[in-house]
């Protein structure tokens, strides 16, 4: 059996705050207040226990085991035991957010350096592609086998200038 959806709003679920003054911080859901609000706590990330709207949260795949309405010390203990911060920093989601932040902090010169590095990389990639394509064409991968034409040098001799008639 494959569950169609695995991230539920439940006590112990770690979430990323997507909006408001706590944007970008990790919190843990301690209790569900009603259909639109939850009680959250982030003892390690510097978020005090408070209520937050569910549409301000993005649920992560991480979940801790503790009873609902557990005190902050229990949440902190569970957070450190489960190594939530380490797991989060290793996740693709966190890496993507870090890269997004890094790009936002780039200066004009940094953008220029990135652009020139990209051009350099693409030129090298194109050169390798063209050489492989040529090799494949010669081996007959695209139809009939092509033979290499030997460069025949034509010996050119300078023609003597025609004598001008004397006047």
Structure description:
- Helices cover 37% and strands 19% of the residues.
- The longest helix is centred in the C-terminal third of the chain and has 32 residues, at 108-139.
- A 5-stranded antiparallel sheet has the order 4-3-2-1-5.
- It is built from 4 helices and 5 strands; from the N terminus they run E-E-E-E-E-H-H-H-H.
- The chain has a domain at 13-82: SH3 type barrels.
- By secondary structure, the chain is α+β, with helices and mostly antiparallel strands.
Q: Order of strands side by side in the largest beta sheet?
A: 4-3-2-1-5
* CATH topology-level name of one domain: SH3 type barrels
Q: Mean pLDDT, rounded to whole units?
A: 90
Name of the CATH class of one domain: Mainly Beta
Provide a short characterization of the protein structure:
With 167 residues, this protein is α+β, with helices and mostly antiparallel strands. The chain is 37% helix and 19% strand. The protein has a domain at 13-82: Roll (SH3 type barrels), CATH 2.30.30.
């Amino acid at each position: 059996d494959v569950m169609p959806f695995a991230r539920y709003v439940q006590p112990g679920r770690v979430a990323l705050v997507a909006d408001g003054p706590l944007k970008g911080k990790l919190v843990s859901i301690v209790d569900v207040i009603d259909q639109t609000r939850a009680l959250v706590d982030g003892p390690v990330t510097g978020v005090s226990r408070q209520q937050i709207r569910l549409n301000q949260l993005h649920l992560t795949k991480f979940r801790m085991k503790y009873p609902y309405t557990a005190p902050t010390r229990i949440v902190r203990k569970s957070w450190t035991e489960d190594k939530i911060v380490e797991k989060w920093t290793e996740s693709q989601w966190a890496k993507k957010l870090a890269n997004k932040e890094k790009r936002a902090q780039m200066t004009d010169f940094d953008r220029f350096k990135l652009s020139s590095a990209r051009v350099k990389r693409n030129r090298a990639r194109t050169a390798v592609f063209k050489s492989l394509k040529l090799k494949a064409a010669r081996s007959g991968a695209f139809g009939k086998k092509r033979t290499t034409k030997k460069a025949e040098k034509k010996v050119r001799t300078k023609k003597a200038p025609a004598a001008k008639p004397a006047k």
